User: Which sequence fits this backbone?
């Protein structure tokens, strides 16, 4: 099914307003409708279609770096994946089909961007302003994702460049890279996928690296017709595969967070992969990280390192110092003429843009409340923001497994909270939020993400790790299995009309 969601009209009031129609927004919407098909729930999506990051990221080679058997909804298995690591078009098609199969399409309003949402304490409701008008909502679910708004670095002269310039998350498909001199800024998860895809088309490629990353082989393969037939006829087999991959993935957190002495084995494997693909010692030194493996996101690729070793590819490790009308300038002051610049500089997960648009009980935005260091209870609720629920909030990101598992856990928790509301509001107690964040900080203290010697996007302005979940994902699911009303202030009645 490839049709886009059916357009709706913006209502004056809705019981549950979900912002974002990516994996997160669709997870919570499906969970609510599963229990109550008549639930008063609306999803607004600023894009023209669902999919979130899988709609927007269409760069060459875009694919998931988590096995697809796990990076999919447990309630919507698919026997049709072509590879063990799915490509972007397949994931987008999967989400469209899930929406159609689960009766969610007529709850989604696309082309509707959240501009501002303010909590009205007297009315006990959210007053919401969107690009299509205003409405009120008893409950607001921010499901905009951690990787939703591309980040461009502040580079001197960037506005003077006369060639073509774009971010990998907003790929310019109208621009033909054939025969062009191209500069790629960044060597993260997106660059390792698209650089090998474009290298044969361009005339010359200059890759700017700020910090090298550890790279492991990507165990991707094509699923056979026999496997697909088996999954279709005996669905239990696919559940068994999913379970085995989940169990194996949970094992990685032992090395990352529990038993760090296991990490050298992974690092030796990554170093061997580097030696096999890059014969030149000088280039290997540039590509060898000085931090412990897994401190930053481990990259998975079978051809990234090999591509950097090509004669028509230059790796610059002195950083990007500036941009001129016709080229890029590195940290040593050398200018390289280029026709196009592609930024693969990621996002800002510790400063999510949606936080600037949400105003709590005291009138401050969530961004002001956090002041660059996000905190939430269970990564989901925040003191001072009644009836606001975050999907993929602080300290819910993973370094070893699938975020979809975490999103389904959060969706169940939010659904439990909605059942508890009964026309009123809930707000997490300050003590509960503080104790929870102290606990998470304590568990993160000795993990590789905090002690591995790197500067990563996991660390916020205060140097806190406000991104990563520190332990097994089944522990998070256990904590979110029921809505713990004892940790919330509940107001049973609304003191004024929500209209």
Assistant:
């Amino acid at each position: 099914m490839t049709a886009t969601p059916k357009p709706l009209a913006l209502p004056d009031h809705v019981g549950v307003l979900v912002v974002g129609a990516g994996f997160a927004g669709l997870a919570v919407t499906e969970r609510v409708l599963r229990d109550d098909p008549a639930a008063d729930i609306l999803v607004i999506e600023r894009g023209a279609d669902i999919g979130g990051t899988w709609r927007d990221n269409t760069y060459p080679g875009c694919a998931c770096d988590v096995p697809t058997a796990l990076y999919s909804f447990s309630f919507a298995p698919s026997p049709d994946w072509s590879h063990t690591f799915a490509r972007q078009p397949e994931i987008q098609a999967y989400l469209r089909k899930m929406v159609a199969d689960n009766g969610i399409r007529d709850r989604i309003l696309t082309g509707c961007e959240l501009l501002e949402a303010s909590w009205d304490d007297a009315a006990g409701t959210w007053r919401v302003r969107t690009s299509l008008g205003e409405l009120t909502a008893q409950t607001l679910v921010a499901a905009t994702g951690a990787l939703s708004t591309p980040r461009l670095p502040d580079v001197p002269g960037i506005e003077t460049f006369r060639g073509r310039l774009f971010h990998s998350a907003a790929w310019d498909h109208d621009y033909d890279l054939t025969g062009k001199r191209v500069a790629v800024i960044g060597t993260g998860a997106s660059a390792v996928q698209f650089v090998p895809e474009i290298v044969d088309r361009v005339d010359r490629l200059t890759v700017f690296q700020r910090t090298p990353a550890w790279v492991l082989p990507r165990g991707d393969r094509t699923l056979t017709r026999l496997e697909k037939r088996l999954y279709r006829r005996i669905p239990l087999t696919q559940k068994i595969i999913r379970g085995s991959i989940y169990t194996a993935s949970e094992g990685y957190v032992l090395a990352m967070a529990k038993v760090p002495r296991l990490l050298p084995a992974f690092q030796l494997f990554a170093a061997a992969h580097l030696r096999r693909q890059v014969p030149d010692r000088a280039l290997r030194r540039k590509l060898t990280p000085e931090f412990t493996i897994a401190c930053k996101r481990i990259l998975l690729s079978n051809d990234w390192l090999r591509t950097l070793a090509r004669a028509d590819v230059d790796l610059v490790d002195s950083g990007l110092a500036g941009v001129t009308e016709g080229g890029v300038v590195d940290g040593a002051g050398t200018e390289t003429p280029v026709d196009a610049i592609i930024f693969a500089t990621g996002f800002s997960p510790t400063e999510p843009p949606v936080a600037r648009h949400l105003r709590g009980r005291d009138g401050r935005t969530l961004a002001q409340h956090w002041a660059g260091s996000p905190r939430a209870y269970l990564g989901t609720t925040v003191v001072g923001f009644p009836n606001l629920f975050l999907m993929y909030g602080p300290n819910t990101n993973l370094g070893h497994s699938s975020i979809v598992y975490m999103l389904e856990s959060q969706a169940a928790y939010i659904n439990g909270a909605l059942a508890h509301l009964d026309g009123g509001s809930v707000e997490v107690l300050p003590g509960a939020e503080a104790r929870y964040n102290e606990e998470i900080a304590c568990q993160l203290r000795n993990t590789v993400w905090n002690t591995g010697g790197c500067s990563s996007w996991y660390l916020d302005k205060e140097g806190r790790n406000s991104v990563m979940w520190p332990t097994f994902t089944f522990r998070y699911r256990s904590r979110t299995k029921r809505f713990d009303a004892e940790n919330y202030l509940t107001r049973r009645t609304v003191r004024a009309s929500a209209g």
Notes: Confidence is low (pLDDT under 50) at residues 1-6, 494-499.
